[in-house]
């Protein structure tokens, strides 16, 4: 099934998604990877106030850096990224975008927090045509690995983990 998703994402939207669904995401999404996601998780754990206009409830986080060459997914199963998925989901992130298989514990954390994981094609040119704007929102000292907010229109992705199931598992 193909579904249009607009941010912020609602609980009702997440409930309708199943693994293998194609989604087209429009609205604001955050971008972060190895260097910045642990910093965001630390701020959440320390109950620090986000001074950067960051609202995680119903949000999307794309596991990527933002460079002049564009954006493309990085592997979501890197320790720094995958270990952020559970805490970020608990803080309100509804959809995590990246590439690759994630572990069973991460799939369960997504399920417990009513969030999903989707894989996105590693085609920078395709995503560039669907990116309408970008803004640096936190940690500028990290350069292209800082936390960015993109305005996107119809970013394509495939739901890879939802409701305790994964497309990477043989017998689900």
Question: Which descriptors would you attach to this protein?
Answer:
alpha/beta; five-stranded mixed beta barrel; single chain; 5 helices; 172 residues
Globally, the shape reads globular
Distance between the termini: 18 Å
> Low-confidence runs (pLDDT<50, min 5 residues)?
none
Helical residue percent band? 10-25%
Protein name: Fumarate hydratase subunit beta
Family: Belongs to the class-I fumarase family.
Organism: Enterocloster citroniae
Keywords: Lyase
Characterize the structure shown.
The chain has a five-stranded mixed barrel with strand order 2-3-4-5-7. It is globular. The chain starts with a strand and ends in a 6-residue tail after the last strand. It has 172 residues and is α/β, with parallel strands linked by helices. The mean pLDDT is 91. Helix 2 (37-45) packs parallel to helix 3. Helices cover 24% and strands 31% of the residues. Keywords: Lyase. Belongs to the class-I fumarase family. Pfam families: Fumerase_C. GO terms for molecular function: fumarate hydratase activity.
Secondary-structure blueprint of this entry?
Elements: E1 2-6, H1 11-16, E2 22-32, H2 37-45, E3 60-63, H3 79-90, E4 95-98, H4 104-112, E5 116-119, H5 124-128, E6 131-138, E7 147-162, E8 165-166
Parallel strand pairs: 1-2, 2-3, 3-4, 4-5
Antiparallel strand pairs: 2-7, 5-7, 6-7, 7-8
